[in-house]
């Protein structure tokens, strides 16, 4: 079951609250700065409590979605839950880590990670039904587990109540890829960026726009979106991998090899076979599945060249 986002009174909703557009634009940019400030203060506390540890975990997530940062975030969220098992924010944080590890194939069994995230999120939302971050994460899990249509519907309901919900726009855009309507993704990303151009998560939205363009075979546009994402946050491995796939399809193999090398430095455990299996398992839509093939075939070709160059370099040494 996916819980509906944004169905509680705005005064009680801790992340999807209705905000004037100007305030909404500032909120996304300031959030990461405030979290970082809280985390720095928490580092100076001799005996950190559960919330001190929670903010440190959140700060690690904000540094970028790669395995090292996510693992550090898990460590702090787990410690936070040990300090206070009733800390719902920490429980949601732990679930976000599971969802990221599953959604980005950071672990050998992505589906198990997504299932673990869902269990934690349902538990958290059973205690605090209006936990907006928990709601948002659960919608992401729905989208990544063959329930994209349901996740999209929940987010669209929230948007009918408040068009300024940037995270709902971004999730709808992502979900459209999984239901074979990637041509609609860009409009949602553009709207999210209009509402919150300096948002700390904007690089993720841009990466999703790049992925949508890959599904459509619009290689030049995919390159443009992926480069924008990398400029916004260079520590996100998928932006580098999708860039490599796009550039490979434009026959710019040397630049594609460089992009893959950067991506592998950020996510050394990445393999095309694992990623292909994980992304294929996220949707049964035939248009979506067909759109994956040129993405992973491009990555397979360039990654093979990266491996050949690496082996040759080792032999020379």
Report mean pLDDT, rounded to a whole number.
87
Shape: globular
Number of helices: 15
Portion in strands:
under 5%
- State the total count of DSSP E strands: 0
Largest sheet: none
CATH topology-level fold name of the largest domain = Serine Threonine Protein Phosphatase 5, Tetratricopeptide repeat
Give the C-level CATH assignment of the largest domain: Mainly Alpha
User: In CATH terms, what is the architecture of the largest domain?
Assistant: Alpha Horseshoe
**How big is the Rg?**
19 Å
Portion of residues within helices: over 70%
What number of domains? 2
Which superfamily, in CATH terms, is the homologous superfamily of the largest domain?
Tetratricopeptide repeat domain
Helix/strand class: mainly alpha
N-to-C SSE series? HHHHHHHHHHHHHHH
Terminal-residue CA separation = 56 Å
Unreliable stretches: 3-28, 308-317
Notes on the protein architecture:
This protein is an all-alpha fold and 317 residues long. The chain contains 15 helices and no strands. The chain has two domains: 199 residues, Alpha Horseshoe (Serine Threonine Protein Phosphatase 5, Tetratricopeptide repeat); 117 residues, Serine Threonine Protein Phosphatase 5, Tetratricopeptide repeat (Alpha Horseshoe), CATH 1.25.40.10. It is globular. The N and C termini lie far apart (56 Å). The N terminus and C terminus are likely disordered.
